[in-house]
Amino acid sequence: MAGGLCGPLLTALLAACVTAAASEAGPKQAVMPEEQSLVLPMTASNWTLVMEGEWMLKFYAPWCPSCQQTDSEWETFAKNGEILHISVGKVDVIQEPGLSGRFFVTTLPAFFHAKDGIFRRYRGPGIYEDLQNYILEKKWQSVEPLTGWKSPASLTMSGMAGLFSISGKIWHLHNYFTVTLGIPAWCSYVFFVIATLIFGLLMGLILVVISECFYVPLPRHLSERSEQSQRSEESVRAEHLQDAEEEKDDSNEEEIKDSLVDDEEEKEDFGDEDEAEEEEEEDSPAAGVDEERSDPQDQGSLRETQKEVEPDETEEDAPEQPRRSADTEMVEDTLRQRKSQHADKGP
Prior knowledge:
Number of strands: 5
Strand content: 5-15%
Largest sheet: 5 strands, mixed
Radius of gyration: 60 Å
CATH topology of the domain at 40-148: Glutaredoxin
Distance between the termini: 190 Å
Shape: elongated
InterPro entries: Thioredoxin-like_sf (IPR036249), Thioredoxin_CS (IPR017937), Thioredoxin_domain (IPR013766), TMX_domain-containing (IPR052454)
Number of helices: 10
Domain Thioredoxin: 52-135
CATH superfamily of the domain at 40-148: Glutaredoxin
Membrane topology: Single-pass type I membrane protein
Protein name: Thioredoxin related transmembrane protein 4
Structural class: alpha/beta
Helix content: 55-70%
GO molecular function, one term: disulfide oxidoreductase activity
């Protein structure tokens, strides 16, 4: 009997111990914390940490499949960050649109390398081995840095970050109207249009008030003097213009008078020439008769001179012959000229 009772008691005790151990181990396993990520989330408040030291940043979106494929590789790269002496961070573009505008992110995922405030775009694959080689072999030195207005720390990109943050807030507000409150999308668009107009009017009013505050009006006596001076200047200008116009008119009249006088003189000259031509025409018949009478006489004298010249040429020496021949040529030329003149005047 005693041996039969001890067996069940022992089994019961063993079962109680096992259940107690299982109950103690279960809460311990449930309380065990998950493995902590070494990737630092970057926001608009702590992004300036990347200005010191060496960093690698990843821009992603929760809905992006390509971003989800590189999550495990990025976590592995962050675990080895201490060995590589580099810090690893990530930026959610949905939650931080300002940072996506500051880095001018247009594709996802996007990777950036930062070394002491100098930023470079990493365009390789998001695989751990490639990322590790990029840091160990210092391949980032061959990449052109983002300098000038392209730098995320520049004033231009700060303004871009502000615009992106405003657009992100507007997008969240639109989703709140359409999804949470169930308002139609066109009603949301009308609301934003009206809000934009009101905002523009308010900004214009503020600018007018600021200009009125900084604008100092002139005293009355100074304003009256300025008006009088302006009037006097205008009157002087008008007088100068009138004088100039009168001078132009006078010069034009003088030119017209001179041209008329010149025309009259030319007409008188033409009249005198006509009268002289008429007198010449009247004298031409009488001259023609005289010329006809003189032609036989000239021919006779020419013959006599030729007869006189022939015996003289035989008596004189050879050097004198060219002179006499030149004289005869001169006489013949004069006779020919006279005949031509008579022939012209005859008709």
